[in-house]
Amino acid sequence: MGKISFVNSNNPGITMSAFINFPAGFSEGGKYPAVVVSHPGGGVKEQTAGTYARKLAEAGFVTIAYDASYQGESGGEPHQLENPYIRTEDVSAVIDYLTTLPYIDQDRLGAMGICAGAGYTANAAIQDRRIKAIGTVSAVNIGSMFRNGWENNVRDIDALPYIEAGSNARTADAASAQKGQMPLAPLKEEDAPNEELRQAWEYYHTARAECPTAPGFATLRSLNQIITYDAYHMAEVYLTQPLQVVAGSKAGSKWMSDDLISRAATKDKKLHIVEGANHMELYDGEKYVDEAVSVLAPFFDRTLRGSSASKVAAE
């Protein structure tokens, strides 16, 4: 594993920070399939994205876990901006970088993500045909989640005040160096409405997985882009690549994995349910992560390295 940085091809003013992982026996003279791993909203490369990237590297892939633009150790101001359109483009920007590496096989590129990173990965694959295979863990369509709630029990129109709040935040930001903020996970334990989201607080704000570059909040202005975003837009037509979805049986977010499976045009799609796991336990619960990887690794092996890879890529 090595820490790297590179210029974001979508915005040359931003330098991306990432970890790149190599399989055993790696040689720069070889040609390897690669998998881009995108972190959750509010997360960074040192957390669950880094975990999955390391484990997939052990399975034989070059992998890269990166900090999104405006987040972590990557550049961009205002920091902590969570703009879904930029985060989607970040996936393609990382692929742009990978295509410049002589040891990466440009015809065997995959992508996966966790939570909102999974939604961004799906959206990137809809528009970027270089992505030949897609994996998701605890998938979240961040627009749907903010509009409809963690358990899909809120009407779209009831999110209109959030668009108003984002609009007002932009006005306030224009007049002040201090940018408005909103939590992406509970900032205090007592703010969590249920055990699953209490674990989200625990993950980001205790020794369980806290990281100084992941404060757990986003700019309030981000609401303007989040509320109207659909990570699965046009999936019914253009998401034709192989798709492996992993979700916990106890995850309040499972409906967003079901939605992705339902909407994806590809016929090569599977949903794997990890029994007993909730949304957060698939971030770092050892047995649950190992089960997810035991599904994702052979999926990427088949679609990026197997004898059917060329045929699948062409469909």
Overall helicity:
25-40%
Number of DSSP strands? 10
Low-confidence stretches: 307-315
| Element-level helix/strand string | EEEHEHEHEHHEHEHHEHEHHH
Outline the biggest β-sheet: 8 strands, mixed
Spatial strand sequence of the major β-sheet: 1-2-4-3-5-6-9-10
Instruction: Describe the oligomeric state of these chains in a short phrase.
Output: single chain
Q: CATH homologous superfamily?
A: Alpha/Beta hydrolase fold, catalytic domain
Radius of gyration: 18 Å
Which CATH top level class fits? Alpha Beta
Average pLDDT, rounded to a whole number, is: 96
Percentage beta strand: 15-25%
CATH topology: Rossmann fold
- Structural class of the secondary elements? alpha/beta
C-alpha geometry = globular
What is the end-to-end distance?
33 Å
- Based on the coordinates given, report the CATH architecture: 3-Layer(aba) Sandwich
Number of domains: 1
DSSP helical segment count: 12
Give a concise summary.
The chain has 315 residues and is of the alpha/beta class. The chain is 38% helix and 19% strand. The radius of gyration is 18 Å and the shape is globular.
Characterise this structure.
This protein is an alpha/beta fold and 315 residues long. It has a single domain (2-144, 230-314), classed as Rossmann fold (3-Layer(aba) Sandwich), CATH 3.40.50. Helices cover 38% and strands 19% of the residues. It has helices at 48-58, 84-98, 116-127, 142-148, 160-174, 195-205, 223-226, 235-238, 254-263, 281-284, 286-305, 309-314; strands spanning 2-7, 15-21, 32-38, 62-66, 104-114, 131-137, 181-183, 217-219, 243-248, 269-274. Strands 1-2-4-3-5-6-9-10 form an eight-stranded mixed β-sheet, with helices on both faces. Helix 2 (84-98) packs across helix 3 (116-127). The protein is globular, with a radius of gyration of 18 Å. The chain starts with a strand and ends with a helix. The relative contact order is 0.15.
